[in-house]
Amino acid sequence: MSLTAPDIRFSVAPMMDWTDRHDRYFMRLMSKRARLYTEMVTADAVRFGDRDKLLAFNIEEHPLALQLGGSDPQALAEAAKIGEDYGYDEINLNVGCPSDRVQSGQFGACLMQEPDLVADCVAAMAAAVKLPVTVKSRIGVDDQEPHEALFKLVEKCKSVGISHFIVHARKAWLDGLSPKENRDIPPLDYGLVYQLKQAHPDLLISINGGIETLGDCETHLAKTDGVMLGRAPYKTPYLLASVDAQLFGDADTAPSREEVVKQLIPYAEKLVANGTPLHALTRHVMGLFQGLPGGRLWRRHLSENAPRRGDDPQILREALVLVEEQTAKKAAMMEGR
User: Fold this and answer.
1) Which residues does 264 contact at the CB level (< 8 Å), separation at least 6?
2) Residue 266: cis peptide before it, omega within 30 degrees of 0
3) Rg (CA), the chain
4) DSSP β-bridge partners for residue 95
5) 3-state SS record for 47-64
6) Would you tell me the crossing angle of helices 295-305 and 314-335 to the nearest 10 degrees?
């Protein structure tokens, strides 16, 4: 099985502590076409940990990719096969995370310095599964020359059959910057990613880093095959409601924000019935009404009530009523002017 350009036209980045199954279910209500990614899971956690807790997902989340972290080819191959058996659509190798924990485990962004090892890893993964195996990387780390580091990594992986690369268009500074600083401080070099696509027109190249609007996406899609956004759709999730129509050309059938909340309530009811606290879901939906009348009331009601009434999904309905009342009040004020 291989990916095509439409498959990867828009995706939401894997983000630790953010893109769990509850967040992905929420995002899927707004876009059927966006490709979703799990948080990074280490190969050994998949092999030896609680697999259902780590890998289970809602069927509605497809298309869905599992992102693995690791540097041992056989361990990654075993974890990839387990992911395939769980029903994922793609297995992605993390070659971009700059956290201290990842560095100490010799995987993530530090693998930019070991392109031969990365090629061995993805070759073993691809041999173990029938799914697409992909790579998410930076353009280099520390004192590496980005053009040389990125192109060498891609060429090594291409030589073993990998055809889709997601490139966060910044270096990672492993020495001197925190993971949070690494998301913003190293300068973006979109042009280098465009050059990569020009040099390898047969590959699928997705671009990631600092992309905030669908207008930005359209600009990048003129020169690459796909765009991946992270913090923007998390903080202002309703931008996903325009993805299918604006970027894929589908009929505009996205639900309203109010409809999204009403569709979330049955999901919340199932969660709490199974013993999952409501906050596991509501923490992801705070930005749904960002910038609109009632948005602040929505966030406050959820943040104050979900932690202490964690078994009561009606909190979502209550918060929606507050938004609707504030919206009506604002409309009445505008009419009275």
Assistant:
1) 26, 29, 281, 285, 316
2) no
3) 21
4) 137
5) HHCCHHHHHCCCHHHCCE
6) 160
For residue 95, the Cα-to-chain-centroid distance in whole angstroms is 15
* pLDDT tens-digit series, residues 276-315: 999 999 999 999 999 999 999 999 999 999 999 989 999 9
Nearest to 182 by CA among 114, 107, 109, 233: 109
Residues that are catalytic: 97
Class of domain 6-248 as given by CATH: alpha beta
pLDDT for the residue numbered 102? 57
Q: Give kind and range of the element (H or E) at residue 329.
A: helix 314-335
Supply the CATH classification number for the domain 257-335: 1.20.120.1460
pLDDT digits (tens, 9 = 90+) for 114-132: 999 999 999 999 999 999 9
Phi, psi angle pair for 172, to nearest 5°: -110, 125
**pLDDT at residue 103 above 60?**
no
Nearest to 125 by CA among 185, 58, 70: 70
Burial class (CB in 10 A: 0-12, 13-18, 19+), 176: exposed
Give the pLDDT confidence of 144-166 residue by residue, as tens digits.
999 999 999 999 999 999 999 99
d(CA 11, CA 36): 6
The closest of 252, 243, 69, 93 to 160, measured between CA atoms, is 93
Position 100 scores a pLDDT of 65
- The pLDDT value recorded for residue 176 is 73
> What is the Cα–Cα distance from 178 to 308, expressed in whole angstroms?
33
Token pair for 203 = 């590959």
Q: Where are the domains of the chain?
A: 6-248, 257-335
The amino acid at 260: V
Q: What is the mean pLDDT of residues 50-59?
A: 97
- Residue pair 176/141 in contact (Cβ under 8 Å)? The answer is no
pTM exceeds 0.90, yes or no: yes
